[in-house]
Amino acid sequence: MLYFFDSSALAKLFHQEPGSSTVTAIFAEQDKEIYVSRLARIELTSVAAIKVRTGAMTPSDAVEFLADVEDTAESQQFLVQPLVEADYTRAQQLLTRYAPQNRLRTLDALDLASAMRLRTTFGVDYFVTADLHLAQVAALEGFKTIIPG
After folding, report:
1. How far lies 73's CA from each of 33, 69, 118, 131, in Å?
2. CATH code at 72?
């Protein structure tokens, strides 16, 4: 199976929360490939900061969280894909199409655009996100979605 993870789902691999068991099970599958856009590593830095600010983790937990993200990326347990110019164009189209009626945000549109390109290139099977609004738009774009948690 081929999966595309956004940061809301990927964070569950590194910090125990509702949905973590679903994410861990996907990562444990044999013959799977997991893709993320380059945005994920940036967004996970923001996730760690939010968790510190809200008391969900300590500053030292956040340092460990981010080190785990980097180690996992380095070991290629997920494959980080760069954004390309076509992703920006498609993200703008997605925002034009969906943002007036759905809560689609800029970075989510970029992630979805990246996933759409990877679906065409590699045959990504599932879009994995903990964001219900993004899952809804991904489904409208023909993705099978997994919503951990």
Report:
1. 13, 6, 18, 22
2. 3.40.50.1010
Residues 6+ apart with CB under 8 A from 35: 2, 3, 4, 5, 78, 79, 81, 115, 118, 122, 124
For the record, the structure tokens of 67 come out as 């080190």
Pair 82, 115: CB distance under 8 Å: no
Q: What is the pLDDT of residue 56?
A: 94
The CA-atom distances, in angstroms, between 135 and each of 9, 23, 61 are 11, 15, 29
Tally the domains of the chain: 1
pLDDT of residue 121: 95
Q: Which amino acid is at 12?
A: K
Q: How many whole angstroms from its chain centre is CA 83?
A: 13
Query: Which residue has tokens 């760069």?
Result: 82
Percent of the chain with pLDDT over 70: 100
CA distance 82 to 43: 14
Domain that holds residue 100: 2-146
Compute, in degrees rounded to 10, the torsion defined by CA atoms 25, 30, 31, 37. Answer: 30
